[in-house]
Amino acid sequence: MAIRALISPSPPSAEPGTILLETERLLIRRYMLSDAPALAEIANDPQVAAVMSDRFPSPYTVEDAETFIKDLNPQHDPSSPPEYPTTSGVFLKVAPAEGHHHTPAGDGLVLIGSLGVRPRADVFYRSWEIGYFLGRLFWGKGYGTEAVSAWARWMLETWPELLRIEAGRYSTNLRSGRVLEKSGFVFEGIKRSAVVKDGVVLDEVVYGLLRSDVEKEST
Fold first, then answer.
1. What is the pTM of this model?
2. Contact 49, 58 (CB under 8 A)
3. Where is the N-acetyltransferase domain (predicted)?
4. In the 8-state DSSP scheme, what is residue 134?
5. What is the DSSP letter of 89?
């Protein structure tokens, strides 16, 4: 069976460091290996790991970050075109206030989080799933909503055949729910007892954003 993939009329480069989009305060680009120390700094936090899957290392070392970035090479997944966005870094364009130490990323920007996308396959190939996290020092500043909202709309614009973007959160992660709702995602339902995290059974709350939802915003 032929692999179904979405085609973009103007696909982004697959090269590490490629800038995918910018917002007023943020820049989203593909990771470079030199970003590993900055990624480890924001990811090595039990409060971040608590809302991630168990694939997310905790503690999170520089070596973990290097392995993660190397594995983002699109050639590791032959089922996806190399221009697909995979996981990218969210960078603050203006340095935070003095008194906070942050390891500069590969180009001197301040890495504050990650955005990922998992294209689905077979009959679901026109639906993509996103995930994200921000370093804890950057919570509560609107960066998550700014990044997720722009990221989702950029994907819909860049891949015209994409119909749907979905996201899920643990029932305990209320902050993520607020980010999704402010970004225009619609609550769609609850998968009861779908998650076991740190020995605790949790529900998964599911959200979706349709191309038609975004088109209605401009009418």
1. 0.91
2. yes
3. 60-212
4. E
5. E
Which residue in 6, 10, 12, 68 sits closest to 39, CA to CA?
68
Q: What are the pLDDT tens digits along the chain (219 aa)?
A: 567 889 899 999 989 999 999 999 999 999 999 999 999 999 999 999 999 999 999 999 999 999 999 988 654 455 566 677 778 999 998 765 544 456 666 566 899 999 999 999 899 999 999 999 999 999 999 999 999 999 999 999 999 999 999 999 999 999 999 999 999 999 999 999 999 999 999 999 999 999 999 999 877
Distance CA 192, CA 48 (A): 23
**Cα dist from 98 to 59, 94, 101, 102, 142, whole Å:** 27, 12, 8, 10, 20
- Residue 128 domain flag: yes
| Residue 182 located in a structural domain | no
- Residues with Cβ within 8 Å of 62's Cβ and at least 6 positions away in sequence, in order, are 36, 37, 40
Q: Are 91 and 112 in contact (CB under 8 A)?
A: yes
Q: Which of 87, 83, 102 is nearest to 28 (CA)?
A: 87
How many structural domains comprise the chain? 1
CA distance 12 to 218: 25
Domain assignment present for residue 62? The answer is: yes
What is the SS3 assignment for 104?
A: strand
Question: Rounded to an integer, what distance in angstroms lies between the CA atom of residue 132 and that of residue 113?
Answer: 7
* Residue 144, helix vs strand vs coil: helix
Burial class (CB in 10 A: 0-12, 13-18, 19+), 141: middle
